[in-house]
Design brief:
It is built from six helices and two strands, in the order αβαβαααα. By secondary structure, the protein is mostly helical. Strands 1-2 form a two-stranded parallel ribbon.
């Protein structure tokens, strides 16, 4: 799923999660710390591993050990963005962009 650059991550996450089976655990960053998004995850039966925003008066608990696994995903995206065409998204069509991501991921996996 491709969203415009100015769309908040929560909007894309909801649409993506509606299209796949609900995950047991969802690990997100502080930008996903919203009560309605946490409620959406709870309604699906998913556990939210999202650190609370610092301004929350009653921060919900989160598993800091499980949150460390987010680093693996962040490094994968960082590796994909080493490819200039992926980082700047020169492709006008979503299918061409997906093909570029698949190619970059395949080559990155092959070189590891």
């Amino acid at each position: 799923m491709l969203t415009p650059g100015h769309t908040h991550d929560i909007n894309g996450a909801r649409a993506l999660l509606a299209a796949v089976p609900p995950p047991a655990t969802l690990i997100g960053d502080r930008a996903m710390d919203a009560d309605d998004f946490r409620g959406f995850l709870a309604a699906q039966g998913s556990v939210a591993v999202i650190p609370p925003m610092p301004h929350r008066l009653a921060p919900p608990p989160f598993d800091a050990v499980a949150y460390r696994q987010r680093n693996l995903i962040e490094r994968a995206f960082c590796r994909l963005k080493d490819w200039r065409g992926i980082a700047t998204r020169y492709d006008k069509l979503a299918r061409n962009f997906l093909a570029g991501i698949c190619l970059a991921a395949s080559v990155t996996y092959w070189l590891q």
